[in-house]
Design brief:
Oligomer: homodimer
Protein name (chains A, B): Dienelactone hydrolase
InterPro entries (chains A, B): AB_hydrolase_fold
Keywords (chains A, B): Hydrolase
Organism (chains A, B): Kutzneria viridogrisea
Shape of chain A: globular
CATH class of chain A: Alpha Beta
CATH superfamily of chain A: Alpha/Beta hydrolase fold, catalytic domain
Strand content of chain A: 25-35%
Helix content of chain A: 40-55%
GO molecular function, one term (chains A, B): hydrolase activity
Number of helices of chain A: 7
CATH architecture of chain A: 3-Layer(aba) Sandwich
CATH topology of chain A: Rossmann fold
Largest sheet of chain A: 9 strands, mixed
Number of domains of chain A: 1
Chain lengths: 243, 243
């Protein structure tokens, strides 16, 4: 991991850009941390530059509660090389959505499964690097989308102790079996009136999770309208499980 | 309203028993209130004596946030006179549940609709009396079950500004039309693995509510296993809307 930029935000949070091999990422650490801070990995749908305003808002909110936060670019997003197969799957998905057709499982599989297969080892490599920094301690949480990445990480990465998952994206049916293997505490966010999202699939997925402690928060406001108080709820969820 | 008992709990909360005509009730007020306290009506399934430990715990939790809390006995519960029709409906319900049969809509209607018709005017009369006390100010919230009572109150009682509803009891299908007329902010609690509860009906009901701000919290733990952190979430919900 190589730091490429550093700035102190007005609330004292230290924001550092980094690269991990070819993968760009951002790390935020609280201004006033005395002990190593627990870490929250911020999941997102790809495109660090576009997502930056929302990511930095989430990171500052987490930092106010004493958490460090970090994110990396997804494979095939932002400035990272595109994959022809992923671009084709994305185009097929867009076409189905624009035609108002139900999205074929096969398109979701082509789009999401390779993404999960590529992204999860990258997140784990980032975790290795981040946890080697003296200012970051365990335990670790994962927060946000892509929910399929969160599911796989929750199953394969024992350092992740709790996850706040945004149920706002497509999940291959084959991943329900993985969802059943998840045992860490979960807070699942669902935008009830998110028209582009399959609500029943999200509810089925919540049902499938094997975790004994799992909570679903459903709200109104559309895909991007998650109410502000959910940020506080997320902080309290992670405070219960990471502190 | 006539006060019948008074005791100071160890956290300073003042607990007063009262009667309103033939209806017994309990009022809890915060120990350290300087201004009139906003009021939360504590809904419950009936039987003040049996429910007391849970009700006093909820009231103390609310009082710690500066809320007064009050409850009254339901018609046909506790020491109040039984209705033959309600007892018959209750027996029919029990028989269906014990036989593992689906509960007929007609039984639910016979059990719940007369209860709502009788209980709601009583709650409103209690509200008149409670709001005439100098230590209690508006606005008012309703929290708990019976959810059908909460729905009717939310529609007909303009002094109720927010409701935290426990979706753990039977709701007559005809009340879905009333649910559509609810416009106040709602926090709906659902115990996901409550085997005696119709989960799909609870989700349909959440969908039906007309409120622009509505939040669903679903948890594990069975009918009586609502996690403790939901008490804090409820306090914050009411603090957002009643303060």
């Amino acid at each position: 991991m190589r730091f490429t930029s550093e700035q102190r935000l007005d609330d004292g949070v230290l924001e550092r850009g980094f690269t991990l091999g070819e993968i760009p990422g951002i790390l935020w650490t609280p201004g006033s941390a005395s002990a190593p801070a627990p870490l929250i990995l911020l999941g997102h749908p790809g495109g660090l530059h576009t997502m930056y305003p929302r990511l930095v808002a989430r990171a500052r909110h987490s930092a106010a509660e004493g958490f460090a936060a970090a994110t990396i670019e997804l494979p095939g997003s932002g400035d990272r090389p595109r994959s022809a197969a992923a671009e084709q799957a994305r185009a097929d998905l867009r076409r189905a959505l624009e035609a108002g057709e139900p999205v074929d499982d096969e398109i979701v599989d082509r789009l999401v499964l390779p993404l999960v297969d590529k992204a999860v080892p990258e997140w784990r490599a980032a975790l290795d690097a981040l946890l080697s920094l003296p200012e970051i301690g365990g335990p670790v949480g994962y927060a946000g989308g892509v929910i399929a990445i969160g599911i796989r990480l929750a199953v394969v990465e024992p350092r992740i102790c709790a996850a706040g998952l945004f149920a706002g994206s497509f999940v291959p049916r084959t991943m329900f079996e993985e969802a059943r293997q998840v045992t860490i505490p979960l807070l699942v966010l669902l935008q009830w009136d998110d028209e582009g999202n399959d609500r029943q699939l999200a509810l089925d997925l919540f049902d499938a999770f094997g975790s004994k402690e799992k909570t679903l928060h459903a709200n109104m406001g559309g895909h991007t309208g998650v109410p502000q108080f959910e940020g506080d709820d997320g902080n309290r969820f992670f405070a219960r499980h990471l502190k």
